[in-house]
Amino acid sequence: MGEKNNEQDLIQMTEQSSMNAVSIDCVIFGFDNGILEVLLVEHGEGISKGKWGLPGGWIKKRESTDNAAHRLLAELTGMDHIYLEQLKAFGEPDRFPTRRVITIGYYALVKREDYDIKAGFTASDAKWYRINEIPKLIYDHNEILDYSIKNLRNRVRQAPLGFNLLPEKFTLLQLMHLYEEILGIEMDKSNFRRKILHMKLLVALDEKQKDVSHRAAQLYKFDPAIYEKLTQKGFNFEF
Q: What domains lie within the chain, and their CATH numbers?
């Protein structure tokens, strides 16, 4: 009797596992004209057709999660060779309407000007949205997005990740606006300038901002050696 029950339990476990699936969902942050934005895609087929969500899809049988994330972004948006960092697994039993699906969340920080976003594969459209103007998304994608924003706010206080969103040359005001957007706070300009320059993270360039109506500001870039050191070591980036 015991052996029969064990066999039935094994069959049930096998059937249940075959019904489960693993997917990838990516939160892509961009920064443009002082505004922090997130890339969303409109689904072009399936049960979510016509609805907006995060770029993502299914992991292939013999594919790692990292490789799947890079492949899906390339297929859905045309983005390739970008840095992705894994968030966590989201696995509530009812997060997907037709069966049990566990998704692995990722996030990335990209320079907007480096990419000409285009919808592809199963996406019918792709668009940047301000983080405070996000519509109702499919499944639990709003929850994944909220989690990634909280994670980003914690990470930028520990490592200079924000520079991944900036052009190669930038002003201190652009840098301050970036951190104001990410952290959701207003900063004192003189205090920010003093603290950021004290970190010795920036290299002042013999160049000024071009094509502006106001007084041209000095341009900076980050010191790659210091950047790498602080990325590995970590630091307190409080303002």
A: 2-155 (3.90.79.10), 162-233 (1.10.10.10)
